[in-house]
């Protein structure tokens, strides 16, 4: 019979009963009345997630209104005494000879693990997959469950929060499939146009090169959105390799010179830009610089010049990249520039400057900032250590 330390740190252990043991009806009624007459129950009914309170035998003594509504239960007393899997109709709950938590498949159940760890450590969070036969047949759910131990009137309980993440899981799977298939299709068309360009007569080659550039830009946009999604969900990992700063700037400049945002505008590279070998993720740094340059180009009208460059801070062993355009931002724009959905270019925009900050600071261990004043224009800066540091995101 496993023992668990008490939440107040005293020497008295907490005994967790065997998985199959259940509380008697008198104990369940007493615990239910003890809890539902207290302040915590009233608070938990306001929570949007599903919330249960379990006793040490993993039986429900309280369920908040959202959970009861999800199951279609009107009388809260109908759920008291059940275990979470039994209340949800989990297939595994009917396989064990003593109910939820006693079947072989339950040994790998994230809910059971969270409950045990919650009593043992005080809190725990896990994901759990549940299959059940609902009103319309077989249903599958992905839940994120969190367990927090509660000491109330000299008894131990567990506040068990359940969040339905089924849609989140499905969306992420579909997004991966979508990006993969879309990239294969557009990338294949780009390669086909590139192959045909060499076979076409001169009078058609210019048009073919323009089509190739369109597909190239499409591939770049798809890669950018895929990378940003991975960054936001924590699935992105930096891959550090040597990079020459001036070569990187030249590559970014060349890549955008024929882009629509650069039409009738000049991109200039400062001749005195530092030539430094730095260890960083070439792809992520390139994305940051591309978005900095795009942002500057979009802020200018035809005939203006956007300038790129970088300096090396030898004392701090850091490289500072910069992109300048002659137009200053308004005070309102400056206050919101790095917010996720803010844009001066209309609805459904606002990802560019947000991604600059997200990638530069969270995954590359750098800092970004800007200056913008009338007469001086706007300059965005991105500063990174010459070599990766421990604080950089993995």
TrEMBL record:
Q: Can you state which reaction this protein catalyses?
A: ATP + protein L-histidine = ADP + protein N-phospho-L-histidine
Care to name a GO molecular-function term for this sequence?
kinase activity
| Stretches for region Disordered | 1-22
Q: Does the keyword Transferase apply?
A: yes
Keywords tagged on the record: Kinase, Transferase
Any single Pfam family the record assigns to this protein: HATPase_c
Know the name of this protein? histidine kinase
The taxonomy runs: Bacteria, Pseudomonadati, Thermodesulfobacteriota, Desulfovibrionia, Desulfovibrionales
Q: Where is the Histidine kinase domain?
A: 177-388
Please give the PROSITE patterns that the UniProt record associates with this protein. HIS_KIN
The catalytic activity of this protein is classed by the Enzyme Commission as 2.7.13.3
Q: Which domain of life is it from?
A: Bacteria
């Amino acid at each position: 019979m496993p023992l668990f330390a008490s939440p107040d740190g005293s020497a008295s252990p907490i005994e967790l009963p065997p998985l199959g043991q259940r509380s008697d009806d008198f104990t369940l009624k007493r615990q239910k009345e003890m809890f539902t007459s207290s302040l915590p129950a009233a608070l938990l009914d306001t929570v949007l997630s599903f919330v249960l309170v379990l006793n040490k035998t993993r039986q429900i003594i309280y369920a908040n209104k959202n959970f009861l509504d999800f199951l279609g239960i009107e009388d809260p007393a109908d759920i008291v005494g059940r275990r979470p899997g039994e209340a949800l109709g989990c297939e595994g709950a009917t396989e064990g000879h003593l109910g939820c938590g006693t079947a072989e498949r339950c040994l790998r159940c994230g809910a059971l693990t969270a409950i045990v760890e919650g009593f043992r450590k005080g809190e725990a969070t896990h994901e759990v997959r549940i299959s059940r036969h609902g009103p319309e047949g077989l249903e599958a759910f992905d839940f994120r469950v969190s367990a927090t131990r509660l000491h109330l009137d000299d008894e131990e309980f567990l506040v068990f929060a359940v969040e339905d993440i089924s849609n989140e899981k499905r969306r992420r799977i579909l997004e991966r499939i979508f990006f993969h298939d879309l990239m294969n299709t557009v990338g294949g068309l780009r390669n086909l146009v590139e192959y045909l360009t060499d076979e076409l007569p001169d009078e058609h080659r210019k048009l073919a090169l323009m089509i190739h550039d369109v597909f190239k830009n499409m591939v770049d946009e798809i890669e950018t959105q895929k990378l940003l999604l991975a960054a936001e969900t924590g699935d992105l990992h930096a891959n550090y390799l040597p990079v020459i700063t001036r070569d990187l700037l030249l590559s970014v400049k060349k890549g955008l010179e024929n882009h629509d945002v650069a039409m009738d505008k000049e991109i200039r590279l400062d001749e005195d830009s530092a030539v430094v070998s730095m260890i960083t993720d070439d792809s992520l740094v390139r994305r940051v610089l591309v978005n900095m340059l795009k942002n500057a180009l979009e802020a200018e009208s035809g005939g203006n010049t956007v300038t790129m460059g970088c300096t090396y801070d030898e004392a701090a062993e850091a490289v500072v990249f910069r992109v300048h355009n002659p137009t200053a931002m308004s005070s309102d724009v400056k206050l919101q520039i790095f917010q996720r959905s803010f844009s001066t270019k209309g609805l459904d925009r606002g990802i560019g400057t947000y991604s600059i900050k997200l990638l530069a600071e969270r995954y590359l261990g750098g800092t970004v900032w800007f200056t913008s004043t009338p007469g001086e224009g706007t300059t965005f800066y991105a500063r990174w250590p010459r070599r990766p540091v421990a604080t950089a995101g993995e």
